[in-house]
Amino acid sequence: MSRRVPSGQADFIANCHYAKPKWIFKYLKRRLFTLLVLRMLGFVPELNRIADEHRSILWINWAAPSLGDSLMDLSARVLLDGREVVLLTHPKNKTLFENDVCFSSVFSDHRSLIAKYGKSYFDLVICDSYSPRVLSKKIAVAPFVPFVGLYGYLNGFEVHRTYFAFARMTELLALNKFDRPVRPTLSLHERSKKQTPEVDVCISVGGEWSFRTYDQWCEVVSWLTEKGYSVSLVGSENGVCDALKILDYQSSVRSTVGCLSLKEVCVEVAKARIFIGADGGLWHIACAIPIPTVVLFADCQIFDEDGNRVTRETKDMICEILYDNVKVSNIPSSQVIEAFERLWNRVGLNS
């Protein structure tokens, strides 16, 4: 892996995590699956270049089905301009990319893909990793088509997925430089694109993981509404209780928590001037739209070459970053408010 990509690799090696049975097993499982199924059965080996003649490409994005991971892993698709790129991704993520300017078609069912394209249409397949579930899809839809890997056999430590995706794609394409911003992107339907913001602040409540679930939104929302800012709440079913608590304090707040489809959530986020939330899928969506964000991180084991902690934003995002070593709820609400004020002034919304 390129040293310019922030990761937890140094700690992983220094503490001999690679010697733990679970990582040895995962690595050997991937190696053996590739050897036995792809090579000994006559399937083509992997390549390490995307050549000019690779005009029709299938990208299989299945290893990490979370919204944020999918957006980060696919962020470098913008470097494949001029090629026909078809996406096969997890059903939960299909909506995110259905109107994408980089993908000509998007599928979540490999049988539908085969029905449209057959098994020999593509010049190349991009596999996001060499895990059996990804390679099994590759074998099913394009068994004799050459393929490249985004992550290959990499496993066991955190990596800055957006920087890694761009670094790997520049390597695959043999690019010396490019003029694209390094961040995830999201193509909204024309009717859904933000024209004039309808709300000042959109806040994501709830969370899949307790250490990434903030418990002081009532204080933040109370301050915002008292200062005259309009607020909307977004989130999935796991944020409904938090949203109800906030509404008990501030009935003027708009809440769509647990009520919208993923496509509708993207539209709701796009209506805001600023997004506030913990590290998670909705924050990644806000950055991909893009709108300025205040984001809360915790326990993020990614470091640069000098050993300094790095979180999941990039230099091409407009973000205010807050961090705690253990859980986001350890971050005082006063710091969230101060970060919001900095960001509001930074993007010139007072003018």
Structure description:
This protein has 351 residues and is an alpha/beta fold. The chain folds into 2 domains: 165 residues, 3-Layer(aba) Sandwich (Rossmann fold); 157 residues, Rossmann fold, CATH 3.40.50. The chain has 12 helices and 11 strands. The strands form 2 sheets. Strands 8-7-6-9-10-11 form a 6-stranded parallel sheet, with helices on both faces. Helix 6 links the parallel strand 4 and strand 5. Helix 3 packs parallel to helix 7 and helix 3 packs parallel to helix 11. It starts with 8 loop residues before the first helix and ends in a 5-residue tail after the last helix. The model has no long low-confidence stretch (mean pLDDT 91).
Oligomer: single chain
Shape: globular
CATH topology name of the largest domain, in short, is Rossmann fold
User: Termini distance?
Assistant: 45 Å
Strand order of the largest sheet: 8-7-6-9-10-11
The tally of beta strands, per DSSP, is 11
Secondary-structure-derived class: alpha/beta
Mean pLDDT, as a whole number?
Answer: 91
Poorly predicted residue ranges = none
Q: Output the radius of gyration.
A: 21 Å
Provide the β-strand percentage band.
Answer: 15-25%
The biggest beta sheet reads:
6 strands, parallel
* Number of separate helices: 12
What sequence of helices (H) and strands (E) makes up the elements?
HHEHEHEHEHEHEHEHEHEHEEH
Give the helix level as a range of percent. 25-40%
